[in-house]
Amino acid sequence: MKNRKRVKRILLSIIIILAIGVLTIGMAPVSFDSVISKNDFKKRIADDYKLHLGELFLNNHEHNSMISYMVVPDIEELVQNMEWEGRIIKTKSTVKFEGEEYIVEYVGKRYWIKQYNWDLVNITKKEIDNNTSNIKIDQEADVAKEKKETETTKKVTDHEPVEEDSIKENDITEEKEVKYETSKEKDNSEEVSRQVLTNVDYEKNSLINELGLEEISKDTIAIIINNPKEILKKVSKLEEFKYDEYNESLLIIPIYNQMRIELVTLEFEEKIKEKDVIFTAQNLSDGYGLHLFALRPCGMPSLKIKINANGIGGEYLLDYDGRDGTPQIEFIKVKKE
User: Fold this and answer.
1) What value does the mean pLDDT of the chain take?
2) N or C terminus: fewer CB in 10 A for the chain?
3) Residue-wise over 84-106: b if at least 16 C-beta within 10 A, else e?
């Protein structure tokens, strides 16, 4: 009996000690996490919660719910503006969304080691100062005018005749050169498109028009839609490939039918090199789209998307832009030799 009571007391003591320890750690201030993390605390918190903070912005901002967006706050600003007191941590950052910029403020409450419940407390839209922009433009115009007058004065001093007509002719020539370059780029784009279609009966993927994506440059050979969700219902020939077990995904749509898609793993040996081909789809039919499940890594990419037709191809490295985030729609263009 005495031994049983003793064992019970010991077990009860252990349970009490553990409960006190858990409670102590759970109620510890943010500075506790900062100390055990040393110098990388702010950066680690920003990286760990960037996607969640982006979701908080979307949940508190009006947008088209039929389209899945990926929004990520500016990581550097999250780090720079991070401060804490007790169990409360605060930060703010710029968020870019649909051509606008917003200052978003967040507050988190610590509940465990480096674990926080976050809330969005304020969104402020950045206003463009047109007056400042106009002043800058006027200043640049004044500098250009002053430079031109100085050159003209120098020519007159050196007894070189300066005619107004010659100055106008130079301006016209420069304008013609710019137009020529633009036209040349357009011709190259059309030539690439023709090369893809040469000697092969390639037809445009009807899915492009169904999604309203027909206004694209002619050197684009595939479109990527990140986190497609509702759009997947419109893809008549949908194929799925899971590179990993994460829920992050993208939809790859070839511009033309009968093209070929490859997914290639990468490795680093002094430079990034291709390793293994893990997926291949060819002779793609009309309405085809590849739904790829893969996490975008911060840092070195681990996966490459290759798409080609008739010897013309393009590539895309799957990685994450920690500064500007991942846009909803991206384009794979013909790789220039």
Assistant:
1) 79
2) C
3) beebebebbbebbbeeeebbbeb
Q: What is the CA radius of gyration of the chain?
A: 29
Q: What do you get for the CA distance between the two ends of the chain, in Å?
A: 86
The Cα-based distances of 105 to 31, 34, 242, 310 in angstroms read 20, 21, 35, 51
The CA distances from residue 178 to 141, 184, 217, in Å, are: 19, 10, 19
Report strand pairing: 288-293 vs 303-309: unpaired
Percent of the chain's residues with pLDDT above 70: 74
Judged on CB neighbours under 10 Å (0-12, 13-18, 19+), 219 is buried
Give the bridge partners for 334, in sequence order: none
Residue 79 sits at φ, ψ, to 5 deg, of: -70, -45
For the segment 126-144, what is each residue's pLDDT rounded down to a tens digit?
Answer: 875 544 444 444 555 555 5
Q: Residue 154 above 90 pLDDT?
A: no
Residue 159 is encoded by which pair of tokens?
Answer: 């007894």
In single-letter form, the type of residue at position 95 comes to: V
